[in-house]
Amino acid sequence: MDSNIDFENFGFTELSTKSSTISSEILRYFTTYCEGKKKGFDKLNPKEYTNLVFLTLMLIKLLKEEINDINLNEEQKRTFLVFQRYGYHELTGEYEKNYLKYSIWRKADFLKYSIDKYDIFLEEKNSGWKKIYAIPIPNYRHMDTIGAVILRVANKLGIFDF
């Protein structure tokens, strides 16, 4: 099964190519995912975590039909919905529970990237720094669940022999 998505318009030109197969994308995802899980998702630097979120979003878009074909428990449905809607720039559920805040701060010629709890007022914590960008990003706590969903789909597609 080839992924025939226009990746330039999809926003993942650095992450994938048009000729990538779904199996190679899943294997690459689990390489990154397992490194993050071993280190601890909350211990990843902001760039590593954001890359993992983007890989997750890409796979969810590629595997949407296959994910809809499997039976998900309530937690898996909620987590899938968080990522699915996030891919369309929509937020769902309790923001403090489902999202973290990815921020970029500047002081003179230095940039600082951070991922913090959604409901924390960061200007006091980062006094002397000017916030130049901030967006919500799916919470670390959803990574185990969405990884399990993608693993179930990979098993169903015969990518892994478990």
What does this entry look like structurally?
The chain has 162 residues and is an alpha+beta fold. The chain has one domain (8-157). Helices cover 50% and strands 16% of the residues. The chain has eight helices and three strands; from the N terminus they run ααααααββαβα. The chain has helices at residues 7-10, 22-39, 46-62, 64-69, 74-86, 95-98, 122-125, 143-157, and strands at 99-107, 110-117, 130-138. A three-stranded antiparallel beta sheet has the order 2-1-3. A hairpin with a 2-residue loop joins strand 1 (99-107) and strand 2 (110-117). The longest helix is centred in the N-terminal third of the chain and has 18 residues, at 22-39. The radius of gyration is 17 Å and the shape is elongated. Residues 1-19 have low confidence and may be disordered.
Structurally, the number of domains stands at 1
Classify the helix fraction into a percent range: 40-55%
Low-confidence stretches: 1-19
How many beta strands in the DSSP annotation?
Answer: 3
Please describe the biggest sheet, giving its number of strands, its sense, and whether it closes into a barrel.
Answer: 3 strands, antiparallel
- Helices and strands, in order, run as HHHHHHEEHEH
The helix count comes to 8
* Overall shape: elongated
Widest beta sheet: strand line-up: 2-1-3
Using only C-alpha atoms, the radius of gyration works out to: 17 Å
How large is the share of residues in beta strands?
Answer: 15-25%
Mean pLDDT across all amino acids: 85
First CA to last CA: what distance?
A: 20 Å
**Structural class estimated from helices and strands:** alpha+beta
